[in-house]
Amino acid sequence: MRTTLEPSTGPGPAPRTTRPGDVAAVRAVDLVKTYGSGRTAVRALDSVSVAITRGQLTAVMGPSGSGKSTLMHCLAGLDTVTSGQVFLGGREISGLADRELTTVRRDQVGFVFQAFNLLPTLTAAQNITLPLELAGTEVDPGLLQATAIALGLQDRLAHRPSELSGGQQQRVAIARALITRPDVVFADEPTGALDSRTGQQLLAQLRSASRELGQTIVLVTHDPAAAAHADRVLLLADGALVDELDAPGTDDLLAALTRLGS
Ligand SMILES: Nc1ncnc2c1ncn2[C@@H]1O[C@H](COP(=O)(O)OP(=O)(O)OP(=O)(O)O)[C@@H](O)[C@H]1O
C-alpha cells in the first residue's frame, strides 16, 4: 500500500484533508485506466490530468464511451487505477487497499445517482441524516436545517418519499450527499429521471447549494443544458481530456460537442 500527500506548500505536518491553501478538492495526475488485457484491452482513460476546484460545480461531458463514468469512479475511489495518481482532499487515494477506500468513500465523498435511492419508510429528514446515523455521528439540527434550506426542503422534512415529487425526492438525495460535508459530491446524471423543466430547476438548486455551502460538486452529464449550470466543464473524448470551458452557455457546449463529433 502506498499513501502520499500532495506536495506541501508550507511547513508543518501534512493534514489528512484539504488544506486551506489548496484549490483542488480532487486531482488526477497522468491517470490511466485499462479494462481487460491483451488484444481486447480497452484504454478507458488515457493519461488524464485534471484538478477539480474546491467549492465549484464542475461538469464532465463527452460522447458515449469517452470515459466519463470511469473518470468519476476513479476520482471517487470506486474503482482502482491502472497507473497515475488520484489525490482526494490532499491525500493520495490511488493505491489504497479496499478497506481504506471504503472509509474514504464514507467520510470524504458523497454520491447522487439518477435513481434517487431513498428509503421509502423513512421521512425526508431521516433519509438525509442516514449517512450520519450509519457513521455513528450525532446529528446537528442546525446542520440539517441549513442543508434543507439550501435545497428548499425545509417544509418537506416530515414527508416520506411517496409524498414527494420526483424533483423533491432528488433534492432529498442531494441533501443526503451534502450532509456529511464531504470533500466532493459526485452526481451521475442526476436529472436523468426528471422532466426537463424539473431537471433545470434541480440543477439551479444544485449550483446554488454548491455556492451557499462552498460544496465541491462534480456532475457527469450528457446534457449541454445541464452542464451549462456548471462553473467549469471538462470535455472528454476517447479517454482523454480535450477541452476545459469556464462557465459556458448551452450553445458553446453544443458547438464544442459538435467539434468532437458527438
Ligand atoms: N467494466 C468494463 N469492462 C470493459 N470495458 C469497460 C468497462 N467499463 C467501461 N468500459 C469501456 O471503457 C470505455 C469508457 O467507458 P465509460 O463508461 O467510462 O464511458 P462514458 O463516457 O461514461 O459512456 P456513457 O456516456 O455511454 O455512459 C468504453 O469504451 C467502455 O466500453
Automatic annotation (TrEMBL):
Domain ABC transporter: 26-257
Keyword set includes ATP-binding: yes
Skewed-composition ranges (Low complexity): 7-20
InterPro entries cross-referenced by the UniProt entry: AAA+_ATPase (IPR003593), ABC_transporter-like_ATP-bd (IPR003439), ABC_transporter-like_CS (IPR017871), ABC_transpr_LolD-like (IPR015854), MacB-like_ATP-bd (IPR017911), P-loop_NTPase (IPR027417)
GO cellular component, one term: plasma membrane
Superkingdom of this protein's organism: Bacteria
Pfam families: ABC_tran
SMART domains the UniProt entry points to: AAA
Annotated PANTHER family: ABC TRANSPORTER RELATED, IMPORT ATP-BINDING PROTEIN
Protein name per the record: Putative ABC transport system ATP-binding protein
Annotated source species: Friedmanniella luteola
